[in-house]
Amino acid sequence: MRLFDGGGRRGVAVMQAFLDESGTHPETPVLAVAGCYGEEEQWREFRGYWASFSKGFHAKDCSSRFPQLVGAMKTSGIKAVLLSVGKDTYKSFATAHLQTAAGNAYSCCALLCVGHICSKLAKKTAFVLEAGQPNIGAVKNVVEAMMMREPEEWCVGSVASAKKSEFIELHTADFVSHICSSYDKPWMGVLFELEILEHGHLTKEQLEEASLKVTALFQVKKALRRAARKGEIREFQNFDQAIETILRADPSSVKAAVDAAIKAHTAEREAKGEHKRGRKPNSISASDRASTGKD
Prior knowledge:
Blueprint (H helix, E strand, L loop, with lengths): L14 E8 L7 E10 H11 L15 H11 L2 E8 H7 L2 H7 L2 H16 L4 E6 L5 H12 L8 E7 L7 H12 L3 H9 L3 E6 L1 H26 L9 H10 L2 H21 L14 H7 L3
Helix pairs in contact: 1-2, 3-9, 4-9, 5-6, 9-10, 9-11
């Protein structure tokens, strides 16, 4: 599944990345999360160019300063990654399992943004998330967990949240996410032409595929718990391999496996006379409850 178009260089110095979102208001159909990244020296150069224009900047109110901001990004070599999704599309096609795993549309886009930045960079990166989103705590927890993994897996060196008034570097991500959620095609075109921006938009097909795989992972988790209760944990010695197989599998084969697992589990539950979550049916019939006044 190819989500991003465009290339990117791999950094060789300590990196810094700043993330901000736009489109969280109900009237906005598209939610966007942007991440802008560069080496420490590049951000130092950016601040030198941008500081005199930065006071009180907020993208939705400061379009007159966009040329200076883009000029500072271009001159200093700052790059941008943008993730977007239609909010109605996310609600309709991200299943409960996927939303349990990835959170709301903001969380999903933010984590994909972090993941893609890590795929571009070789050095540890300090991530700063713009404060204010209700789900920012959940995102920080996941990114912190990524920080604890092996160095070659993720580039996360640290993660923090801050206001735009504390880090003027956040103005770049505010700008990029804003022009996406407001559908400002001319400025998007400028960033593409300057080779500053990569953009990935989540489609319903991608959400459906991800939902299927996450459901399969949840089923593996349930099977693992059942095996543990029965003392059969040895059957899951290749658990990591099973996870990798699911993630790499063709969506149609995952769907077939999920459907078969659901069918088998339903048949097993019905054979035991159980409702969902293992509850056995009440022995008092509906007519008996009506006559006895029990409900």
